[in-house]
Amino acid sequence: MNLTIISLFDFIGLGLGFLLTILIFSYLLGDNPFFRLAIHIFIGVSAAYVALITINNVLIPRLIIPLINGTQGERLLSLLLFIPGLFLLTKATPFRKAGNWSVAILVGIGAATAVGGAITGTLFPQILGTINSVDPSAYAISTSRWDQAINGFIIVLGTITTLIYFHFGTRETPGQSNERLPIIENISKIGKVFLAITFGALYAGVYLSSLAALVERLTFVWEFLNSIGFTLFST
Amino acid sequence: MNIKLRAPVSAAIAIGVGVVVLAGYFIPSITNIRFALLRTGLVLAAVALLVGIINLLSVHFKKMGSDNENSGYSLILVIALLLTLVVGIIDMVQSYMLGQPNFQMTNWIFTYIQLPIETSLLAVIAVSLTYAAASILRKRMDLFSITFFFVILLVLLGSFSIPSATLPFLHVIRDWIVRVPALGGARGLLIGIALGTITTGIRILMGTDRPYGD
Description:
The complex is a heterodimer of chains A (235) and B (214).
Chain A lengths: L7 H18 L7 H37 L2 H18 L10 H34 L11 H21 L16 H46 L8
Chain B lengths: L7 H19 L4 H35 L5 H27 L6 H36 L3 H17 L8 H12 L1 H25 L9
């Protein structure tokens, strides 16, 4: 970080970044007013930033510009979009009931997109991937077929037992507490082990990412202090 | 039998629009209608986001007026939000009216305020995760916790690249864990999430759930 080549504007920014980093790091000593101050600044700035991105990337190019500069057809379409948008804005006013039908459009489109996306984007590809892991014709030539068969079996076992772990259906028996069938209970224990492995791997991944962020922030703090002449250790 | 249907008009709109969008995934001839409705949904989602931000502002305006001990934080939040919004709108006006699309001031706020806070929060998570991993075995010593802890340890040791301290077989073990058993578990989770999403979506499309007001 060479301070001689950056502008005053950027230097103020770096100082602000340094201060905010220290405020956030103060959380390591426990919840405190400095941390809460930084978090409230963050929420405010993030909300405004998201609003700006939404206005600049969606509302202006898809609604405002076609309404002003578009052809007659585009203007009509934009106007049709404008009406439910205006009614949706009433949700932030005391006349919020007027916006229900706009929310209904949004919910209908959202639900259908979620169902379609889940079927075509997750369910089919994941089932296909699970089937392929035990399909000998899909095996790679470079590694042992036995290795791939055993690994494929473990993947299928993991997938099925994890799904069974989340099966909470019970058989109702009069006078007895509702419990899962013993076979489901035993299989779900295997699923629990696979879940522990999956969550462990995910945890380690998140930990590595956060560690990279920690190193980046500490480097920034170190370099900023050095650049303003505050030397902790002489080299 | 007296059955009162809740929000019949809104339900009819949601079901009608939803069925057309869903059908568009599987019937090529109505793909264009699906895309038009998706564009409508995109604009409405953008407006809904703005409604959410207006709501956030109004909630904190109310808190500012009360004798709440946190009213000072609400004031800070409102100032930060409005200031960023004003700066962004000035940038936008410069960009669209004067033809100078640089968004310099908005970028400054992003680079020197938002990015440091986001990265610092992620960095703080590293310390919290270390503490949580260290205390997991102390609080609960069962098969799940032991497996969870040793998988974290193996994946971390296999991921570090310290030449003098790294054992080659740890990389192999890490790769195998991530590629085989973790993949199996993750597939089970993903399929479960997809099935849950489909169930919830179909309940909305059938009108059983009506999350759009009375």
